[in-house]
Structure formats: C-alpha cells, structure tokens
Fold these 2 entries.
Entry 1:
Amino acid sequence: MRALRSELGRVRGLGSAKEGVQHWWLQRVTAIALVPLVIWFLIGLVAHAGADHATVTAWLGGPVTLGLFLILLGAGFWHLALGMQVVIEDYVHREGLRLALILLVKFGCVALMLAGAIALLTIAFGG
Amino acid sequence: MGTDDRGAENRNGDERIRPSDPVVSKPQLSVRPLSPHLQIYRPQLTSMLSILHRLTGIVLGGGAVALVLWLVAAACGGDAFACAQALAGSILGRLLLFGFTLCVVYHLLNGIRHLVWDTGRGLELDAVYLSGRLVVAGTFILTVAIWIAGYAAQGGI
C-alpha cells in the first residue's frame, strides 16, 4: 500500500529528507566555534574600550584580528539565522508570514555579515 | 488536517471543559484536556532560564546589528567613528551595552551548559539546578568584571 502514496504525501507525513539533524547540528557547530571567538572578542573590546580611531583600526586591520573577526561574523550570523528560524517556526503559525519572516531573517543575516566583512576588509586593505 | 482542526477548536474555546463534564463519556478528542500551559505552571528556575536563553539570543541579534554598524563606522573614517563612539558612550549607549554584555555572557554560559547536556551529562535534576544557579551567578560576576576591566583600560570614567 505504501507504493500508492505520492512522494509529496510521504514527505509531508513521516518521510525523511535525510537532513533531519542538519539544522540542529549546524547550530551546535557554530555554537562551539563561537565559544572561544566570543571570549576573544570580549577581551579585545575591553582592551580597546574608549580607544581612538587609529588604535581601533590598527587592531581591527591586523591579520589575526581580521581573520578571527571574519570567522566570528560568519559563525555568529549563521548561528543567529538558525536560532531566529526556530523561534519564528515556534511562534508564527501563518504559513505565508512564517516563510516571509524566515527569509527576511536569512537575507538580513547575509547582508549584515557581508557589511561587517566588507567594513573589516576596507579597514585592513582600503585607502 | 484532522489534528489541526481539533487544535483550532480547542484554542477558540468553543468547547471548554468544565469540572462537571463527564469527559470520559464524550468520545470526541476535541474536549480532551490539553497539557497545562505556561500560565498554569509555577515559574521554575529551569524553565525561566530556558526562556531567557531564547530571549537573550534574540536581543543579541540586535547586538549584532549594532556591532556591524560600529564596524562600518570605523571603516568610514574618523568622523563617523567618533560619532559612533559618542553614541556608545552616552548614558543610553552605556545602558544598552551593559544589557548586551549581560545577554552575551548569559547566552555564552548557558550555551556551554546546553553543549554539556548534548553530551548526555548533567541532566539529573539536582545537576540541572546547580548548573543553572552557577550560570546566573557567573553571568553577574563576569559582566561586572568585564565592565570594571573596561573602565580600568580606559583609565577611569
């Protein structure tokens, strides 16, 4: 009898897309990456509290800071997008609005991550 | 579709259950009691910290926006950066930054707690309460320590 069910029906029921843990797992992978990165970032911010523009850009433009900060932005916005998606899926029940909000969060996270990365690269290499 | 319909009926309260109702004699699933919801439960440390993890995560989304704006200001040059620093250094800016610090430290510590749970450890009730209390205490201690260190790095207020 199972053969009489459509593929879509199976997927909408209990069918596996073989990616069931992907979202959960990536949330953990980014979380593990963020633990040392956030600690490093907080120490860096504290060390440069109230510093002038030249000092801050010298810090941000250094190769180690630049590399770690780019990973921080990537892992951070990825983690944020995954987390916000779960929150939206839990509380927004209208399907169209839910989809629109999730897309908005994902596009927003990509745009902000890119803006931060371009700002950092401009500080490091720009005129 | 069937389960959705039942849920909607219960939410609308069309068929509220009264204590006198002979629930057992009614065969419809629609009048069966739902699981108690948040308003029924006495607040517990465990559930409050769970909600707080979500809440701080959402707030940190705002913090991430602020961070990117700060980076863009730094990239735009000295004037824009001075403006961003003035905003961050204002009373409202400092209050916001203190709030973000609380959120990031809490989300970090409680996130580590979650990662430990993911390994299957620390899930006994007393261990869950102990780690919860440690996270709350650690959040306040670390946040205050970060701000003392920040002011010390600036050489005072």
Entry 2:
Amino acid sequence: MSKTPQELFAEREKRVQDAMALKVPDRVPVFLSQHFFPARYVGMTYEQAYYDVDKWLAANEKTIVDYEPDVYFMAQAPIAGPGEALEAMGMRQIKWPGHGVPANRSFQFIEGEYMKAEEYDEFLADPSDWTVRKYMPRIYSNLQGLGMLPPITSMLNGYVGSAITGILAIPPVAAAFDALLKGAQVAGRWSMAFAAFDRKMATMGFPEFSAGVALAPFDIISDMLRGMRGAMIDMYRCPDKLIAAQKVILPMQIGGAIGVAHMSGNPRVFIPLHRGADGFMSNEQFEAFYWPGLKALILALIDAGLVPCPFWEGTYDQRLEYLRELPPGKVLGWFDRSNLVQVKEVLGDVLCICGDMPVSLLESGTPEQVVAYSKKLIDTVGKDGGFVMSSNTVLDECDPALVKVWLDFTRAYGVYR
Amino acid sequence: MSQQLIEAITDMREAEALQIATELLDGGTDPVQILDDCRQAMEVIGQRFGQGQAFVPELVMGGEIMKSISGLVKPRIPKDVQAKRVGKVVVGTVEGDIHDIGKDIVAFLLDIHGFEVIDLGVDASPQVFVDKIREFKPQVVALSGFLTLSYASMKRTVDTIREAGLRDEVKIMVGGGVVDDHVRAFSGADAFGADAMAAVALTKSWIGG
C-alpha cells in the first residue's frame, strides 16, 4: 500500500533531522536547491519568475513533485522580491532578469560603497536613522524623498513638535511613501502566495529546507554597506569601527531570523556566507573580523531552539578547526568546494555535512560521471550518517535528465543497511 | 632602493610609507626609483599572496598605498619613461556575468608580474573578446566567471574566437568562483586556473617572463 502524504512528510522530515542530529537515517536524504532551475525545467523564462507568481509557483511544484526531494529549497525566490516591487521602489542594488540582465539570466548583485568610511560614526550612533534616511535613498532610486525626512526622534517632542507631519507632504517625500506602499503591496501579495505554497507542499508530503535567512555581520558590512574593498581597507584603517558595527548588526540578524522562524514554523535558518572563505582573508583576520560575529550568530540561533544552516560558499579547508567550536549535532553545514572528505574527518562529529555535488558535472557531464561522483560521495562522506546529498551550489543551468540520474541513484544506492 | 619604504608597504604601514616616500622625494631621490620600490613591494605582496601568506585585504590595501604614493610621485616623472612589458593578456568576465573581484585580482597580479593587461571589464561579449584580440594581439586570453551561467558564455566565447580564425593565435584560460576542470573541457579552453596565482603561472608558462 502506498504511503499517505502525511506519512511521507514525517518520513522525509525524520530522515533529514536524523542526519542533522548526526544519526544514521534510513537512507541519505536528498536536498534540491532549485533557485532558477524550475524555470528551465518547465520552459519559462527567469524573467517570468519575477513577474508571474502563479506560473513560477506551478513550475516549482512540478519540479518538487517530479524530483521528490526530502527537502526542497527555493529561498524566498525570486531573490530580492518580485519585479513589480523592485520597479516600484527603483531597486539599484541588483540587476534582475529582464532588468539589466537578459530574461534568462540569474539576478546579480551590484556591489558598491553604499556607506562611506566616514559614516561609521553616524551608523553606530543610530543605525535605524541612518538606514532610513541615508541607506534606503541610495539603494532605491524612488525613495530619494526619505533623505529629506527629519530624524524620527523629532517625534519625541510630542505635542509640542508635530512638524514632521508637514514634511511628509512635501512631494518627493510623499512620492517615496507612495513607492514604498506600492512595493509593499506587491511584495505582500507574493509573500502570501509563497506561504500558501509552503503549506500546500507540506500537505503533499514535502518539507521545506528553510524559511528564514540571516547573514554574518561581516558580510552585511562587506556586501551591503562598505563593499569588499571598503571592508578590507577598514581592517587596516579603522578595525575598531568595523568590529563595533558588527556588534550593532548582530542582534538585528538574530531577531530577524527568530521572527521568520516563528512565523513560518520552520526552525532551519539559511546563512549564506560570502567573505569568510579561504583566500579572501587570512586565518588571523578571520579570527579577528569574521568568525566572532558568525559564531555568536550561530550560537544565538541554537539557543533560540533553531537550526542554523550556513552555506560555506567557496572553500573553507583552512578554517575547519574553528568550526569545531560549534556544539555537536546542532548545525547543518552546506559546503560548496571544500574538500568534503577532509571536512568529514575534521567535523564529522560536529556538523551534519551537505553539498559538494558539482553543478558543472550536472550541467555538462555524462550519466556515468554523475553516478561515479555520487557513489564516491555516499561511500566517503555519507558513511555512518550525518550527511545530506546536495549540489555544491544552485542548480540553475543543470541538465534536468542528469539531475534525475543523480537523485535516483542517491535514493537507490544511499540506503543504510 | 629604499628597503624601509618597501617594508613599510609590505607591512601595510600606510602613514609611514607615505612619510618615507615624501622624505625621499624631498631629499632628491629619483621618482622613478620610488615607483620601482613600490613595484617591488607589490611583487613581495603578490608572492606572499601566492604562498598563502597574504590575502585580498593586503592586495587591496597595498594597492591603496601604492596609489597614494603614485599620486605624490607621478607628477615629477617625465612622460616618456615606460616600463618594459613581457607579453599581453586580454582579461574579462564573460557575457552575462558582472562579477569583477576575481578578474580584478588576476589583472592586478598579471600587471605586477610585468604583463600588459587589457581588461575588458565585466559582461564582455564574445565579439568584444574577438575585437580586442584583433586589436591588441595578446598571447593569452583569460575568461573569468563567477556564476554557473558563465559556463555557456565561456564556451560561446571560445567558439567565437575559433570561428574568427584566431584560436591558434592565443592560449585561453578559464577561472573564477564555480569554474573547474569540467568547465575547461566543456568550453574548449586550454587550461583552468584554480586561483589568481595559477593564472600568473599559466601565463608565464605560455609566454615566459
């Protein structure tokens, strides 16, 4: 007799949780990092993924139903929000399909110095005020008017000073609020559709990987504020401020992740890591500038009963010893190009390990190569559990037939006996 | 040669490096000599980078210090003094990809190792590569990509270079975030470089220097 969706959901969730707890599940769980892959799979453009929520969710549903992953992962795709919302607010920090990149290309981030080195003090003194009046007008062309707002604390003058009400009516300020509202309405509609989609997938038997996202404090500064060059120059010119800003950012990241986890009911928090990888900085710099903030974030999420899932993009072969400072069985580590055999040796008793299947192979390899690589991964890293099969990064350009070969083989060969 | 200046730069002591450079200039040292000290310092940083003893912050900061010193020194250098170059490399991030960090590091290291670098920037189309190969006649072409979509762009770029009849004129390497040897084979490039120093080593093996 075939299993009910409820039974399948419980079975898949247990499989993943067993692996995360470093136990041996019934078989190696498979994790599908869809990203833009469903568009290619059903024959729609990436641009449509940003503009047609029904079509995009249907493509994701078909992908999940056909490939039957133990956990699916679509981030809160499309990344950065629906196209209409981005247009309404005039998003400048990314190019998205059909807007700055061709219709069938992934979104791309435009890194820049969105905060000047001289602005650290202002940011540290009042991060909210700086975010609203300085940062938002810089990253959204249609929110320029926010820069004309007085400090929000002017409202503390209570009945004596209601001057802000007049300022809100100045045309550029009013236009900024209009743009914000319009963007929010579109984003709200999409969020509801995505939440409904996740509930629907659950009733069909499919758990979601994670709903919440948090970033390492250093990455907020390096990606979103100072740019890579800026943050690295700050290591030499103003190291104290670089660290102080991370301390201000940390609780924001923790609070945000906990909020989404509670709302969604999904305890797994995705933490994509950028500048901490080998090669970007030395171990000494990692220890001084990157790891303290990241470690504090991970520990705080564990304390809140959540499961941090850092994506160690690039390689972390030089940093594995630091990861041993994390408590065992509480973290899922998704690895990109680190040496997974070494990761298993060093961290097999600490982290659940996931990742490594090269998307280059799933794009242009042969079925035999895909099977051979999968077998090697299961035999080495999958040994004794604590392993989730996943691609090293997003599946965007992968060949649907090879993805099927990969997952079918893993499900058949990955049974623990 | 001022060992003091070189060490101040390689140790990232910015204020001190600028002060020494100013003192040297005021004391009548040949400005070309000061620039050569900077170049030597950057070479040391590049070597340390290759050996895993220096990282991106040092490349960035070293570059910043050098830029400041050049600003002081260059106005006092006659225009016709030019450094000798051992070969030419066309570098660019392939079409559809706008990532520049890896590509910039490769360009920077090739430059301090004495190669003339023609940087096509990001999102460079196959045709732009072909045009610049015709214009500059480089010995080496370096294709950079960070995203998985770059695989197909790399292949198109190599194909377009071949169709233009230029494939035998240049050696082609690929590299960047998600690029590996599968991508080298898929794109039809000559070599894959795992990191920026590999790009320098490949270039040296192909054109010497």
